[in-house]
């Protein structure tokens, strides 16, 4: 009895407990599976749908301009030297001699005929005095001959003097008059020679250089003693290529800036070279300048010459891109997609960059931020003022 009772009691304790434990394990396993399924659905199911449903990113808004066509000056850059427009070499006009005084210095303004230097004339002065005395002698002879002729003319009617004597006295008077003219001419020649001993300015202008000193012996073969700019007129001789000379004309405006100076000087092209140098393939445009102490002949200068006007598109500098293939811009098409367009740049000014080739002015051009875009990219163009 006791055995059976004990066995029954153990069956009652162990029998029902086993199924309950098993159920708990199944419940826990089911919960874990549900959690895994929910996670998988959240990752692959819901996430995939969200990815599919995610909207496409909106196109960026980019400023564009339509440049049109503007009138711009055709500017030619050139370099060259400053020189006298009419460089006058001054030397000895007479027989020369020893220079006694030099009266001018480089940079000094002189009048036409002003004495620049004097030459010793001690011998020439005595010669001139001698010739002047001969003139006086010849005039005295003429006076005596004329008086004798007048007395003879009064006596010939009375028969005291023959007509032949009268004619001789007339010839003597005429010879004396001729000798006066010869002596006067010799004296005048001497005075002219003495006047040519002084070295004088042939015209009004500016003394540029001096090569004469007191005590120097000069003559007809001494060469140039002074150089001067006639009227103080200066010019810049700008070196230009054949293509630049082709469209250049006299009267074109120019701005000249000497090297080492910030000051610029207004000028005008007064002559365009009719020939081209066969070696350099360049010609010279001569730009007339007014006299200014800051302009030094022989100095180097740069010039900006306005060679005409043209109608071209103008773009801001921010619109221009460049790489190893050259300069380009981004043009917006009808589908708002950008495309690369190669361009040729012209003059750069405060108004913008002139485009000589590549655009006709009606295109929509990306104004800025071109470095962040790429060809084929779609944008939202926002038109800005050109």
The quaternary organization reads as single chain
| Element string (H = helix, E = strand) | HEEEEEEHHEEEEEHEEEEEEEEEEEE
- Poorly predicted sequence stretches spanning 5 or more consecutive residues: 1-18, 46-56
Helix/strand-derived category reads alpha+beta
Domain CusB-like beta-barrel: 237-306
Family: Belongs to the membrane fusion protein (MFP) (TC 8.A.1) family.
Domain Multidrug resistance protein MdtA-like C-terminal permuted SH3: 314-367
Keywords: Membrane, Transmembrane, Transmembrane helix
Plain-language structure description:
GO terms for molecular function: efflux transmembrane transporter activity. The protein has about 375 residues and is of the alpha+beta class. Among the domains are: about 55 residues; about 80 residues, Beta Barrel (conserved putative lor/sdh protein from methanococcus maripaludis s2 fold); about 120 residues. About 35% of the residues lie in helices and about 35% in strands. Strands 1, 17, 18, 19, 22 and 23 form a six-stranded mixed beta sheet that branches. A six-stranded antiparallel β-barrel has the order 2-11-14-13-12-15. The chain has a four-stranded antiparallel beta sheet with strand order 3-10-8-5, with no helix packed on it. Strand 12 and strand 13 form a beta hairpin. Helix 2 runs antiparallel to helix 3. The longest helix has about 50 residues. About 20% of the residues are buried.
């Amino acid at each position: 009895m006791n055995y059976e009772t004990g066995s029954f009691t153990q069956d009652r304790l162990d029998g029902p407990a086993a199924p309950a434990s098993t159920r708990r394990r199944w419940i826990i396993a089911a919960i874990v599976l549900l959690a895994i399924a929910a996670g998988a659905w959240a990752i692959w199911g819901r996430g995939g749908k969200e990815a599919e449903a995610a909207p496409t990113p909106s196109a960026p808004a980019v400023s564009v301009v339509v440049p049109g066509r503007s009138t711009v000056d055709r500017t030619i850059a050139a370099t060259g030297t400053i020189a006298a427009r009419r460089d006058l070499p001054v030397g000895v006009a007479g027989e020369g001699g020893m220079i006694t005084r030099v009266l001018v210095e480089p940079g000094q303004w002189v009048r036409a005929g002003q004495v620049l230097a004097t030459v010793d004339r001690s011998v020439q002065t005595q010669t001139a005095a001698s010739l002047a005395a001969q003139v006086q002698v010849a005039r005295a002879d003429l006076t005596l001959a004329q008086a004798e002729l007048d007395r003879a003319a009064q006596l010939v009617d009375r028969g005291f003097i023959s007509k032949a004597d009268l004619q001789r006295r007339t010839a003597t008077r005429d010879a004396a008059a001729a000798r006066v003219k010869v002596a006067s001419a010799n004296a005048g020649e001497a005075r002219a020679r003495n006047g040519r001993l002084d070295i004088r300015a042939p015209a009004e202008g500016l003394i540029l250089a001096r090569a004469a000193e007191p005590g120097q012996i000069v003559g007809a073969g001494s060469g140039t003693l002074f150089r001067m700019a006639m009227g103080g007129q200066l010019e810049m001789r700008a070196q230009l290529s054949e293509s630049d000379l082709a469209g250049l004309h006299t009267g074109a405006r120019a701005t000249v800036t000497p090297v080492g100076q910030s000051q610029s000087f207004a000028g005008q092209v007064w002559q365009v070279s009719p020939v081209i140098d066969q070696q350099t393939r360049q010609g010279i445009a001569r730009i007339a300048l007014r006299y200014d102490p800051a302009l030094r002949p022989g100095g180097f200068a740069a010039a900006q010459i306005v060679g005409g006007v043209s109608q071209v598109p103008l773009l801001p500098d921010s619109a221009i891109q460049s790489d190893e293939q050259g300069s380009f811009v981004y043009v917006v098409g009808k589908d708002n997609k950008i495309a690369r367009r190669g361009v040729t740049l012209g003059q750069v000014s405060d108004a913008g960059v002139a485009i000589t080739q590549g655009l006709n002015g009606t295109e929509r051009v990306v104004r800025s931020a071109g470095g962040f875009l790429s060809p084929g990219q779609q944008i939202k163009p926002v038109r800005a003022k050109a």
